[in-house]
Every structure is written in structure tokens, then in C-alpha cells.
Design goal:
Number of strands: 3
Radius of gyration: 19 Å
Order of helices and strands: EHHHEE
Number of domains: 1
CATH class: Alpha Beta
Number of helices: 3
Helix content: 25-40%
CATH superfamily: Ribosomal protein L22/L17
Oligomer: single chain
Shape: flat
Distance between the termini: 47 Å
Structural class: alpha+beta
Largest sheet: 3 strands, antiparallel
Strand order of the largest sheet: 1-3-2
Length: 126
């Protein structure tokens, strides 16, 4: 018998990619993700290529993965793709400490984040 197949989590005209355990805070990734939401994939890749933020390199890798998934798994036209969703979430936080004066400690938090990018194919305009 077995379990019933789970329904697909995304439509036929979209593809998804995840970036897990990215070594930066969620807030910093969201600043970069916000800058590419709603843009065409070509424009978003250009923005990420010339961005001065360090984390833009990781976001670009995930976007390229989403584009490759759309092309190879869903057979979508890469010229009509745009970034439908780009969101970041917390993964975990490594906790470290540093000795300070008079026997105290200074807390060091090293956050990790997850990134989800969904690309969707635009409908043809008549």
C-alpha cells in the first residue's frame, strides 16, 4: 500500500532552489534578496555580480541553481524567468565566547541562515 504521493509544492511554471547553512545573519541575506525580488533573472544576476556585499556571491549561486532547475527539470524558457520569491530564514547560531577583563566573558554569536529562491516563467503577452 504505502503512503500517498505528496502534492507538488510549486506550480508547473516555477522552479525552486535552497541554500542551506549560509554563514551570515538572516538580516544581511534579506537585504540582498529584497534587491532582486520581482526582477528578471538576467537583471538579478547582473545586480548580484556587481553588488559590493560579500553575501551576494552566495545568493547568486542559489539563483543560478534555481535557473538551472527551471531549465533542466521543468523545461522552462530561461529568457522569460523572473524571481518570484526570495526569502531567508534562520538555521542555527554557533555560540562562542571570548575572555574579558576581571574573569568575565564576551559572548560571540555566529549565525547561519537558509535561503529560498523561487523563479517563475512569465506568461506570454499577446
Amino acid at each position: 500500500m504505502g503512503k500517498k504521493a505528496a502534492p507538488r509544492r510549486f506550480a508547473d511554471n516555477e522552479a525552486i532552489a535552497y541554500g542551506k547553512m549560509i554563514r551570515t545573519s538572516t538580516q544581511k541575506i534579506n537585504l540582498v534578496a529584497e534587491s532582486i525580488r520581482g526582477k528578471s533573472c538576467e537583471s538579478a544576476l547582473n545586480d548580484l555580480t556587481f553588488s559590493t556585499r560579500r553575501i551576494a556571491v552566495e545568493v547568486k549561486k542559489v539563483l543560478q541553481s534555481a535557473i538551472a532547475n527551471a531549465e533542466n527539470n521543468q523545461q522552462l524558457d530561461i529568457d522569460r524567468l523572473y524571481v518570484a520569491e526570495a526569502s531567508a530564514g534562520r538555521a542555527f547560531v554557533m555560540k562562542r565566547w571570548r575572555p574579558r577583563a576581571r574573569g568575565r566573558t564576551g559572548k560571540i554569536l555566529k549565525p547561519f541562515s537558509n535561503l529560498t529562491i523561487v523563479v517563475r516563467e512569465r506568461e506570454e503577452t499577446a
